[in-house]
Amino acid sequence: MRAVGVDLVVLEAAVAKTSLYRYFPTKDDLIVAFLEREDLDFWATWDGVAAQFPDDPAGELDAHMRWIGERLARSNYRGCPQINVAAEFAEQDHPARQVSQRHMQALRGRLQDIARRLNVPQPEQLAAQLAVLVNGAFVSSGLLGADEATAVLRSALKALLDGARAGA
Predict the structure, then answer these.
(1) Residues 8 and 71: beta-carbon distance below 8 Å
(2) Does the keyword section mention Ribosomal protein (predicted)?
(3) Which of 57, 72, 93, 165 has a Cα at 20 to 30 A from 130?
(4) 96 CB contacts (<8 Å, ≥6 apart)?
């Protein structure tokens, strides 16, 4: 994000610099708005999937792994913007990093809700493992072939669920 200059943004967006600055007084404001929009899109997809499995938390998790795998397989996918920003902006008080942290906390919370609905012995541990799985998949998208991302996520999910149900 820091490597992209305002001139490139203006050129790609086909807007005048004054218009850009009217809506986004600083580049950080633009980055925050972008992340917030990405956040809305991500959770809209999540909520749409979750609504299909109100009484089937395992089925919901599997469906989440499917759409996340499909997301990773897109030819233009360049990783999770939330994770990318967290890596780029190390300052804890940077507004973009704060949006990213809220997203990660929301992911962990939603996974914890699902884990509790599964009635496994240690739902917090399962939620942490699932968060690592999802975030690890986003970071590893360049290492996974388009045809393997979903299968890798689903098989890892199965192993985590089997371990959680066994109390491991």
Answers:
(1) no
(2) no
(3) 93
(4) 1, 28, 31, 32, 35, 85, 89
